[in-house]
Amino acid sequence: MRVALFGAYDASYPRTRVLREGLESRGAEVLSIQAPPDSPPLLRETRLLLSWIRSARKVDALLVPSFGHRDIPLAGLLGRAADSPVLFDPLVSRWDTQVGDLGRLPAGSLSARRVRASDRLSLSLADMVLCDTWEHGDFYSNEFGVARRKLCRVPVGADRFAFELGERRAAREHAGPLDVVYLGGYLPLHGLPAVVDAAAELETKYGERFATFTLIGGGMFFPRVERDVAARGLRSVRLVPRMPYEEAITRLARADVGLGIFGTSAKSGRVVPHKVFQSMALGIPTVTRRSAAITEFFRDEEHLALVPPGDGPALARAIESLARDPDRREKMGASGRSAARAQASPARIGDLLVEAIQRSRDATAPGARR
């Protein structure tokens, strides 16, 4: 099988890495039909078209990776010309992100309507749409009219590096403060204010030596988090800038507890992000918000610990409970890692992608294309 990753995508983005590794685990040849992510309109399409012409190879499918909404029209044209189905992995709705999650565009504004129309067009032109959770799939169906037969659930998962590092990760003898690590962006759906609230509660109750919080990354909410940490005089919280991917995962692997997301937006309830799968792939006991999406994959108190969204005190209690029970941490980390491997390893994702490609080829075969 030969599959073209098509678009102005970031090859280093974790989701794209996992998709490529998944396909390669099934013996697929993966071609890169690519333009730089920051390519302006027209130049973007020109570069993609030239890359397509240079490849001059028949492919079984085109796969447009995350955030490639603008690349779907050209992918659709080339796919039909080559009789190759187009699979789209949007990962998110741009309209939902800009209006509902980030609040950058007022609902009902011309800009919001334009982004919504772009979402609808890209999702309608794709022959198969990948959704990371069924909650997200239902959203695509309800908001944009995507037929259920066009949806295939493929969790974001974790890459080989995380799983292999988890194999080598030795059980830790707990000495000193509990090492709690967050790795990721500072977006609204991540709910970092709840993490700061939890750290403040534990520091007030036990002092700074009970648990240390290392927050790695940056983004929209970073200035707010930085101000809150300083205003509360928290000595147990350390803010670390973004670092190279493998270095960041290696730091996460040393944690006693990994943190997921705690946002309260509708979008945060539809996703299970990289950080959750990465932490679990490493065998780290993980705490994240409760949602219908997370329970598609994992069971509370067996594979990970779930808390209400935006609830700093509940997060503090969950961390406190894990701190006091090393055996429970070890058992949860091992059980979570096993579940993550079964649900979202590159090999499992490869199986799901091959199934999606075959379904899309059957649906677009001569006489079957809509």
Automatic annotation (TrEMBL):
<dbReference type="Pfam" id="PF13524">
    <property type="entry name" value="Glyco_trans_1_2"/>
</dbReference>
<feature type="region of interest" description="Disordered">
    <location>
        <begin position="324"/>
        <end position="345"/>
    </location>
</feature>
<dbReference type="GO" id="GO:0016757">
    <property type="term" value="F:glycosyltransferase activity"/>
</dbReference>
<dbReference type="InterPro" id="IPR055259">
    <property type="entry name" value="YkvP/CgeB_Glyco_trans-like"/>
</dbReference>
<feature type="compositionally biased region" description="Low complexity">
    <location>
        <begin position="333"/>
        <end position="345"/>
    </location>
</feature>
<feature type="domain" description="Spore protein YkvP/CgeB glycosyl transferase-like">
    <location>
        <begin position="212"/>
        <end position="348"/>
    </location>
</feature>
<keyword id="KW-0808">Transferase</keyword>
<protein>
    <submittedName>
        <fullName>Glycosyltransferase family 4 protein</fullName>
    </submittedName>
</protein>
<keyword id="KW-0328">Glycosyltransferase</keyword>
<comment type="similarity">
    <text>Belongs to the glycosyltransferase group 1 family. Glycosyltransferase 4 subfamily.</text>
</comment>
